[in-house]
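Service request form, structural biology core

Requester: graduate student, group of Dr. S.
Request type: structure prediction, single chain
Budget code: on file
Notes: please return the result as structure tokens.

Sequence provided:
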Amino acid sequence: MMQLFHPKMLSSIITGTGCFIPPVVRTNQDFSQHLFYSEKYEALPTPPDVVVEKFRQITGIEERRYATGDTNASDIGSLAGAGAIADSGVDP
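Core staff response, request fulfilled:
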């Protein structure tokens, strides 16, 4: 029988978490005037507000968050990491 855990193995403990929530909010209402297209790149005949409402019903998504154009993925990770360090109380 194979042993999955060795008693002398090191383990990790999560002592803090961090996140970055982008500041730009777009609600479903913001998309109600957009055209939506089929997989064949043809405009859907369904009114955009109906498409948006159906999307909300299916996914539960009511808003999206976007980072500003001057924010890189590394900036987001750095801010979330700094929050995790602060939350943990660890001296960086």
